[in-house]
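Suppose a colleague, Dr. K., hands you the sequence of a protein chain of 328 amino acids and asks what its three-dimensional shape might be. Before reaching for any lab equipment, you can write down a predicted structure in token form. Begin with the sequence itself:
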Amino acid sequence: MAQNRTHRIVLAQPAGGPEVLRIEEQALPAPKADEILIRAAACGVNRPDQIERLGFYPAPKGARPGLGLEVAGEVIETGADVSGFAVGDEVCALVSGGGYSDFVIAKAGATLPRPDGLTLEEAAGLPETVFTVWTNVFESGALQPGETFLVHGGTSGIGTTAIQMAKAHGARVIATAGTAEKCALCRDLGADIAINYREEDYEEICREAGGVDVILDMVGGSYVQKNINIMNPGGRLVSIAFLQGSRCELDLMLVMLKRLTLTGSTLRARPDTEKARIAAAVRDHVLPWIEAGKVRTVIDSRFELDDVRSAHERLDGGQHSGKILLIP
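The predicted structure, expressed as tokens, is then:
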């Protein structure tokens, strides 16, 4: 069925700014035994795509060519070993590459049904953020109901998702953001405290609020020591990005005295079996929150696939709140 088809993919060659992005039409392979072919309704645009475009985040071995890590749409073909999905199903999926396309091949294990109550466009903004938040905040960070959770970059795609998931879990939530409007969005999503980091000292405010138990950090640099300073005994700091750089000078005495855990992870290069395990956990724990209206996708803007450069210009500008989507 798929062998005679073509699809458009987005490539970044050579590495650089949004101007290097180009669309290429290629033959569309048939899905392998454990894969499904999705006609894309929307594709998510994420910070790792930007880093890959700049040449610093190479695709793992075996990934499909092209940018893009998440997609939602209709199943139009399934591999021989796929069960649980059928032609015509509406789904969203985490992929290792090739997500910016009109037809996307995904591993069945990393695919979820479109949650009730969400459109396909809204579902396209879920997989990369929900998988990331679940594995880092709830597994590595072991967030418990009643604990205090801090997320930096509260209006990013990850941040808006983390606020809602932590709140649905029963945690007290603190978020940082760069404008009064973004802080207001954080509060609308459930943050108990929203801190404008350009005008306020988040370290001082968090200390006055009683400290924090789990931190999801995308900043790095000077934030790392400040994070350690405000953590409660037994706290967990989880790093997933480094907007200020991955190198910093630390006083580890507090790590020892407060018995802190400093950890971090990436998602894209994990084995398919690990992504399938995470998908199963998300299906069991997070989809019920979504279907109950406790977690939703915050969409910042939509761009046609042909206008992918403008989507990346929006991403690079840092003024967005929530997810940027490409519509094939």
